[in-house]
Structures are given as structure tokens and as C-alpha cells.
Design goal:
By secondary structure, the protein is α+β, with helices and mostly antiparallel strands. 57% of the residues lie in helices and 15% in strands.
């Protein structure tokens, strides 16, 4: 090959490589671990899809909804950096995936679909761009869980610290006045009156709720709503729940949902939750608080560079430790 032609080939190759780097630049460096813009954008898109699903937002998202969710990118960045630092900890501590773990988890997921086509559509709908991306999510979830669980279990929280927190955070353990009730929801007052007559004639409340209630949640539980504080229900229901004589059946109570037949089994006065009831919850909270501080401290001393100009269109890149 002639020298001039060889030089042209080299220059073209270098230009192509440079174009690739420009199209997908490194936007985050975590102590030498480089994360490209494509990597970050894929993770953020998955986060957005997951958030939309949890909020029961209509899909596909409107441009207005996308713009609103885009505002979450800075907060997601902080979450993403913490996740990557935890993975760095897992690597440094020698955690590894069990052989075949990812494939087994992937197969478990596939078994939930009728066929390969519905599986592929399912992961697309979930905002997952590829199966490799999904495999990486499974891997990261396992390693993060292992290291975080071990770190949490290693933290010993003595009883005196639990007692001190309980004593100095009394407002957190206030219990509001509550009513414990069940109901049957029907469409018309006539239906409600008919059911009330049957209840007074000896029909079982639970059976009638399962058969007639339009509330699918409580209906399947025999109308049971559990215990709830004053103000948690719509006004007409709330007034009845906190005034009705215990273990009696109300007259039809109208709301925007229809007509309710209510029975209150218990009312609890406002007070303070006993220490023994929350002791282990407080211990777990303290353990989690300390764990988060440990991870945050580790993150603070880890060299992290973020190119905010490429991520957010900011004027300057920032560097933090």
C-alpha cells in the first residue's frame, strides 16, 4: 500500500473512532469506572418508566409528562451515584454472583409470560432496552443486596440507644384516635335498605359483603377496612364511623361512591404506642440510618467526576469527592 493511501486509512479510522466517542462520551467517572451518556440515559429512561408505572400514569407518556419527569434527573443522578458506590463496595469486599444466578432469574421472569414474543414486549413496556441491560440489573440488584444486608447485620444497636431514641422522639409514636370498621358498598339506597333488613334478620355481615359489596378491596375480606384515623375517609363515612354505636348496623350512608352500610367493631383513643410494640422497628431504623451514613461517607471520599454540561446542559462540568 502506498504511504499516502495508508495515511488516509489511518486518518479515516481515527476520525471514525473520534466520532463514536463524541456520540457516546463518558459523563461520569467513579474512581476510574467510566459511565457513558448512553449508559446513563438508558438507566434514567428505565427509572422514568418504572416511576410512571408506579404512579399509574397513562402510557405512552405525553410530552408534558415526559418534561415533568425530566425534572427528576438531578435527583436520579444522586440515587444512581449512590447505587454505583454500593456496587463498588461489593466489588472491593469480594462479593460474586453464584454460578447461573442471572440465567435462573431471567428464566423465572420469562416463565411469567406466555411466549417469547410477549416476554420481549413486556421488557420493552417496562423501559428495558435490551436483555443485556436486564441481566445487568439482575446482577447489580443481587450484589447490592448482599453487601447492604451484610453491612446492616454487622451493626449492633444496643438497647440504651433504642430507648433514648424512643424517649426523645415522642411525637413519632403518637397514635391518633381510630375506628375499626367494615362496610358494604352498593349503588342505590333501595339495595342498602334491603341488605340492612337481611342483616337485622340474621344474615352474616361478612357473607353479605362478599356477595354484594361494590368495593373490590374490602368486599373480598368480608367488608373489613381495618382501623383508620379520623379524617381518613370521606366526610359522611367518617362521621358515621366515629359516632355509630359499636357492633350495630348503620342506616344507608351516602357518599360519592354510592351507599354504605357500616358496622364499627372498635374505637381506639389517641395515645402513645407502647415501647415494646415499636422497639425492634426503632432498632431497625437506627441501623438503617447508620448504614446510610456509612455509605454516604464512603461516597464522599470516592473520587467522582460528573460532566453536568453533557448530562443537563449546564455551562460547566463539576467535580466532587
Amino acid at each position: 500500500m502506498k504511504p499516502f493511501l495508508l495515511l488516509q486509512v489511518i486518518l479515516i479510522s481515527l476520525s471514525f473512532a473520534f466520532a463514536q466517542d463524541t456520540a457516546n462520551p463518558v459523563v461520569i467517572d467513579i474512581d476510574g469506572q467510566e459511565i457513558t451518556k448512553t449508559d446513563f440515559d438508558e438507566r434514567f429512561s428505565f427509572f422514568i418508566s418504572d416511576m410512571a408505572a408506579k404512579q399509574n400514569m397513562q402510557l405512552p407518556l405525553t410530552e408534558e409528562a415526559k418534561a415533568a419527569l425530566e425534572e427528576l434527573k438531578p435527583a436520579f443522578l444522586e440515587q444512581f451515584l449512590t447505587e454505583q458506590v454500593v456496587l463498588k463496595l461489593a466489588k472491593e469486599r469480594g462479593y460474586e454472583l453464584p454460578e447461573g444466578y442471572v440465567d435462573a432469574q431471567l428464566q423465572n421472569l420469562k416463565d411469567q409470560f406466555d411466549d417469547e414474543e410477549s416476554y420481549q414486549q413486556g421488557i420493552i413496556d417496562a423501559g428495558i432496552p435490551s436483555e443485556d441491560f436486564l441481566k445487568n440489573l439482575i446482577k447489580e440488584a443481587y450484589l447490592s443486596s448482599q453487601v447492604v444486608t451484610q453491612m446492616r447485620d454487622d451493626l449492633e444497636i444496643p438497647d440504651w440507644r433504642v430507648e433514648l431514641y424512643y424517649a426523645t422522639h415522642a411525637d413519632e409514636f403518637k397514635s391518633p384516635e381510630q375506628a375499626c370498621a367494615r362496610h358494604i358498598l352498593v349503588e342505590t339506597e333501595e339495595e342498602a335498605l334491603d341488605i340492612i333488613k337481611q342483616l337485622k334478620d340474621g344474615a352474616g355481615f361478612s357473607e353479605m359483603a362478599k356477595e354484594h359489596s361494590l368495593d373490590p378491596g374490602s368486599g373480598s375480606r368480608g367488608g373489613d377496612l381495618g382501623c383508620f384515623p379520623r379524617g381518613a375517609m370521606v366526610p359522611s363515612f367518617n362521621d358515621a364511623a366515629f359516632s355509630l354505636e359499636l357492633n350495630t348496623v348503620s342506616e344507608p350512608i351516602k357518599s360519592q361512591f354510592g351507599y354504605h352500610i357500616i358496622s364499627v367493631s372498635e374505637r381506639k383513643e389517641a395515645g402513645t404506642i407502647d415501647f415494646d410494640q415499636v422497639k425492634e422497628q426503632v432498632r431497625e431504623k437506627l441501623r438503617n440510618d447508620i448504614l446510610l451514613k456509612i455509605i454516604k461517607t464512603y461516597q464522599d471520599v470516592t473520587p467522582i467526576t460528573v460532566n453536568e454540561e453533557l448530562l443537563f446542559g449546564a455551562k460547566d462540568a463539576t467535580e466532587g469527592n
